[in-house]
Write a sequence for this structure.
């Protein structure tokens, strides 16, 4: 077991959802955190999506993934409540999960999971037939990732340095050091957190003993303004997010309206 460093200083590579979250958590515990990111500002990567969902994974055997996501959703919603504005940055709207593949079944004892079979009224509000297999997640909702990232990076004790092209990671005695393409040191500290999505693989692969697989996943998002729809069309939109093979969210405020 590796002992924690004497100096409570951390270096984080990546200023997206993961990097900003760990920086916030460490800073709230008294750490001094420096975050490095190659972008010029908040929300340059996948964390820049206009909206996302915080909803749990469910399984008949209540497996490890279900436990992790349930705890993660709870922590995310608590942080959103503490840092963001409800109704404009996030909302505890609940989420209806259209169970298209038939794989998302609740365990026998799910009384404490805040998830249940969707009611007839919820199915109707989502525009689904009354016999559609679906679940209702009460402790779930939509969130604007950029707002959460920005708020977490503004935590006292967190310093962000933009435009930092990290190319290498190495151990120097008791410290970790990160370098650019010319070998110049960009940062150094006793604790290093790598949270740079798929780019993490190139940074960590040369290190001895690194064997964690990372796979890139492509995604697609389409969005438009409610003002482009007629009143009759807007009336057909579900009042809460619906997910299944993909997600549908309506009524999320944006800088453009």
């Amino acid at each position: 077991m590796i002992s924690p460093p004497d100096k409570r200083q951390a270096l984080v590579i990546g200023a997206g959802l993961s990097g900003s979250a760990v920086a916030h958590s460490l800073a709230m515990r008294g750490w001094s955190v420096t975050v490095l990111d190659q972008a010029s500002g908040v929300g340059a990567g996948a964390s820049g999506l206009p909206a996302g969902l915080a909803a749990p994974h469910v399984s008949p055997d209540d497996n490890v993934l279900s436990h992790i996501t349930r705890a993660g959703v709870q922590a995310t919603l608590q942080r959103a409540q503490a840092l963001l504005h409800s109704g404009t940055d996030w909302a505890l709207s609940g989420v209806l999960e259209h169970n298209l593949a038939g794989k998302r079944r609740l365990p026998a004892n799910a009384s404490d999971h805040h998830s249940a079979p969707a009611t007839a009224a919820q199915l109707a509000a989502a525009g689904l037939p009354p016999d559609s297999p679906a679940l209702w997640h009460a402790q779930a909702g939509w969130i604007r990732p950029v707002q959460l990232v920005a708020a977490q990076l503004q935590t006292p004790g967190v310093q962000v340095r933009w435009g930092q092209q990290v190319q290498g990671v190495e151990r120097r005695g008791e410290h970790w050091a990160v370098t650019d393409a010319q070998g110049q040191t960009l940062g150094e500290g006793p604790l290093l957190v790598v949270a740079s999505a798929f780019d993490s693989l190139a940074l960590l692969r040369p290190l001895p003993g690194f064997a964690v697989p990372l796979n890139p996943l492509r995604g697609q998002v389409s969005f438009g303004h409610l003002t482009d729809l007629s009143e009759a069309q807007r009336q057909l939109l579900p009042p809460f997010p619906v997910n299944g093979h993909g997600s549908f969210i309506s009524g999320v405020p944006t800088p453009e309206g």
